[in-house]
Amino acid sequence: MEQCYINTGHPDFISGQRAIAIVNDRMHPPKPQQPGAPQGARQSVSINERSLDEEMNLPKDNGFFGSFWQNNKKKKQPIMEAPPPVLKASGTLSEREQMETEVIKLLIQSYFNIVKRTAIDMVPKSIMLKLVDYAKENLQRELLKELYNPEALADLLKESESTVARRGECKKMIDALKKADAIVSSV
Length: 187
Known about the structure:
Radius of gyration: 43 Å
Order of helices and strands: HHHHHH
Distance between the termini: 90 Å
Number of helices: 6
Low-confidence stretches: 40-69
Structural class: mainly alpha
Shape: rod-shaped
């Protein structure tokens, strides 16, 4: 059904920005404003929040793409270390990691709600399709079996009483018309 494509354009799928806003509201509920404070004032940015450049450890003067084209004649150290033999989850997550985890959980929950709703919609439709197909095939088989039954063939080919009576009337009318034609021809 929803094999490997995540439709992020689905109307019920929450966007990443909306998920982040929901998680921020959960983690940092809005504080009641003081009566003397202006209504639209932004709260100061916390020291723990870092810009994207600081998070990625990029130099300020070169920018993001500067790290690709800079001429370093220094011998480069290996970028990645060997993985440890045993991976263990750390005991505590940073605030950013907690927020990212909650956003991912929220997006996955939203996606699975869409998949669940789709499955709920598809099950009755597929059951009805199977029932209709089964009834159609079996009904046609039964009707053909009854139609070509040799015992019922004589009954099916037998004319109705009204047809026999009408035929008799037509024969009498033909005889009467032939006699009238003979009489007219002789005159």
